[in-house]
Amino acid sequence: MPAQKLLFMSTEHVELMNRLLADDAASLEACAALPRRYTLAYELSRDGGTVWWTMDFDPKTGVRFGLVAPEQPADLTFHGGYRAMLDATARSKAGEQVPMPLTTSGDLKVMEVVGAAFAAARSKATIDTEIREI
Description:
By secondary structure, the chain is α+β, with helices and mostly antiparallel strands. It has helices spanning 11-22, 25-32, 82-93, 110-113, 115-125; strands at residues 38-46, 49-58, 62-66, 76-81, 102-106. It has a five-stranded mixed β-sheet.
């Protein structure tokens, strides 16, 4: 019987991505060049509550994913519906050109600042997952 895929942005998925990134030379090097720590957050509404996905880019520790609200306001926050985000992500993964159903608050230029670290992290920690509601 084939192994079951991890669920997208589940605790297990996030832990595996963080293990892969812990000693990833490319993302650590890109983060080391940053002047300070940056945080990207996804604040997704679901059934009257909030689901958080975060990415920290730290010059000392590299890229880390999380599933809780950021301790301090994120530099850039993406806002939207949880189900809509999962649907758009699944469709994008299937090769469709889909606009992400998100609005933003914060500084969009942060994406340029963390771009190299983001790309390195994506290269190292992209894992084939099952995209469905947790």
